[in-house]
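Worked problem 6 (solution included).
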Amino acid sequence: MGGNVDIVRRAFDAFSRRDAAALAELVDPDFEWTSPTAGVAGRLEPYRGHQGLKDYLADVARVWQELRSEPEEFFEVGDRVVVVGRIYAWGVGRVVDAPAGWVWRLRDGLIVEGSAYGSRRGALEAAGLRDEG
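Solution. The predicted structure is:
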């Protein structure tokens, strides 16, 4: 796997530790993150920049007692890394144990954009890939 995959793996690791400083080192100052947690938290806009990362982690702590991302497969597609796996979460009267996918766009060794999807297929299609599995 290439350098972009390694960067995304490090981002998942930093998220699992809720390490905002480590995440900030991996993302561009103009980073934009779109996540279902935003809707659960009542947020209408994507999370933006380093402050957006802090806001996202605060929302995660507020609306989920536990939120775990378990990436399983990584696909590098040009400047993007597509990740498929599972998400486990509980809190705010919800329990989630479901397939998930993420698409990350990188530039100059930093993550500039990320989106979470509720399925493997959604993430693959967002990156222009077909789901053969």
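Discussion: Helices lie at 3-16, 20-26, 36-40, 49-63, 120-126.
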